[in-house]
Amino acid sequence: MSQTCTGSFGEPVVNLTFGTVANPVSGSFTNYTATSTTCPPDGSYTLTGITSGCFGGNWHTISQDHTPNDNNGNMMLVNASTAPGEFFKETIGGLCTGTIFEFSAYVINVLKPTAAGNKPNLTFIIESTDGTELGKYSTGNILETPSPEGKKYGMIFTTPVGISQVTLKIINNAPGGNGNDLAIDDITFRACGPVIEAKINGGIVPVSLCEGEKSTILLSADVSAGYNAPAYQWQISIDNTVWTDIPGGNTKNLTVTIPSAAAGGYKYRLTVAEQANIGSVKCRALSEAREVVVIDRPTVDAGPDKSFFKGIPAQLDGKAGGNDVSYLWSPPNYLDDPTKLNPLASPPVETTYTLEVTNACNVTVRDEMVVKVYLEIKIPNTFSPNGDGVNDVWNIGGLISYSDAIVKIFNRYGDLVYTSRGYDLPWDGKYDSKTLPVGTYYYLIDLKTGEKSYSGPVTILE
User: Fold this and answer.
1) Each residue of 15-38: pLDDT tens digit?
2) Rounded-to-integer distance, Cα 438 and Cα 84, Å
3) Which residues contact 438 (CB under 8 A, 6 or more apart)?
4) InterPro entries, alphabetically (predicted)?
5) What does the pLDDT look like over 216-229, one tens digit per residue?
6) What pLDDT is attached to residue 27?
7) Which of 7, 207, 251, 335 sits at 20 to 30 Å (Cα–Cα) from 231?
């Protein structure tokens, strides 16, 4: 059974992933023969992310290496030598002295269960540069699996005081020639510390603040035994990638004041190391991050104004930003659901709608848009502008809703006697302030909606 870390890890100090297809790792880490084929022969290896159809289909098809999010990444694909022995040796530098480390690697037996053959059997040895053995672990037989499965193997070792460089050796205990084919990836060294259980305001549930809110939070941690002289350092991050030491944050319990909570929020974690090593980030073990979630000020956009023909609903194109927000359109009249971001609207007349977006901090922002309703056009063919108060003007039903409509009227000779944009004031039968003679005239109405124009006769009566 692997001797892996049961406490809290540090960031990887070394992470050998064998590079990518375009940029493979270089070095003399093996005495096997390098080959470019993805089906290496006995006693050889290749750096690749794939292998397929090897040795009559006796090998698994592998479509990618083990490293997460490693686009076109490599693994070391090995066809073992017929003679057992050391096949990998690499000097590992940059370690912290007097520190407990976990070494680990992921190994796949690439042979299918249906193919009889020797099973990979490896021994990992870590030595100081003078040859002193610091750790040793043997995997035993690595069994075949129904599908290619990377299994983690590793051990715990301690770097002596004053030693920051070690040698990693991998021994092949089984013969090749018939099986003993493997892939290895993600050879990693990282600090192994005590169990660190960080808390925020006494728990592990994220704390929520409103954007701009001032608050004081309490960071604390339970740390198990493991270091002779443990030292502590709290860190903060706003992107969970770049972490910064908090000045003065070198106790297990720390009070932090946030003068004005910024959008995006904050993450906190406790790092722990031996007192002599706390100044080096790579020597520290890390707690899980605890989070302050900042509820952003909401944003709102009611969307563009809409125009539609009466009786045909229009969908409103509202947009909103922020976390944990609710929506409300007003007035709610003629909306299928005023609490939806994009309701259907069917008002009988032009209506201005307001979209309100409210977050969990009860902050509300608003924006407006207009739904314009095109009414049915009804064009009379006569009117009598004789001043009797009845039918004195040419009232065109619904035309008032088309504010951009162009109305033109011609006499029988084709002369223009009336024109208007929009139709707020119906035509009174006059031209140049004089009442036109009784007779038939001809109209042309362009609604400017992309629909067909209206044309026809209109008669002025006595």
Assistant:
1) 999 988 878 887 689 999 999 999
2) 117
3) 459, 460, 461, 462
4) T9SS_type_B
5) 999 999 999 988 89
6) 67
7) 207
Q: pTM of the predicted model, to two decimals?
A: 0.71
Is residue 181 within 8 A of residue 143, CB to CB? The reply is no
Which of 162, 93, 151, 96 has its CA nearest to residue 119?
Answer: 151
Q: How many whole angstroms separate alpha carbon 340 and alpha carbon 108? A: 52
CA distance 150 to 188: 14
SS (H, E, C) the chain: CCCCCCCCEEEEEEEECCEECCCECCCCCCCCEECCCCCCCCCEEEEECCECCCCCCCECCECCCCCCCCCCECEEEEECCCCCEEEEEEEECCCCCCCEEEEEEEEEECECCCCCCECCEEEEEEEECCCCEEEEEEEEECCCCCCCCCEEEEEEEECCCCCCCEEEEEEECCCCCCECEEEEEEEEEEEECCCEEEEECCECCCEEEECCCCEEEEEEEEECCCCCCEEEEEEEECCCCCCEECCCCCCCCEEEEECCCCCCCEEEEEEEEEHHHCCCHHHCEECCCEEEEEECCCEEECCCCEEEECCCCEECCCEEECCCEEEEEECCCCECCCCCCCCEECCCCCEEEEEEEEECCCCEEEEEEEEEEECCCECCCEECCCCCCCCCCECCECHHHCCCCEEEEECCCCCEEEEEECCCCCECCEECCEECCCEEEEEEEECCCCCCCEEEEEEECC
In the block, tokens 């520190």 appear at: 99
Please give the radius of gyration of the chain, using alpha carbons only, rounded to the nearest integer: 40
The distance in angstroms from the start CA to the end CA of the chain is 110
Smallest CA-to-CA distance from 306 within 355, 257, 258, 264 is with 355
Distance, in Å, from the CA atom of 289 to the CA atom of 267, rounded to the nearest integer, reads 6
Residues of the chain with pLDDT under 50: 1
CA 90/CA 31 separation, integer angstroms: 11
Among 352, 354, 293, 365, smallest CA distance to 325 is for 365
User: What separation in angstroms does the CA of 291 have from each of 285, 324, 417?
Assistant: 19, 17, 75
- 419: tokens are 């024109």
Q: What is the pLDDT of residue 1?
A: 45
Spatial distance between the Cα atoms of 89 and 126, rounded to a whole number of angstroms: 10
pLDDT of residue 2: 58
353: tokens are: 């709608």
- Cβ contact 260:209 at 8 Å: no
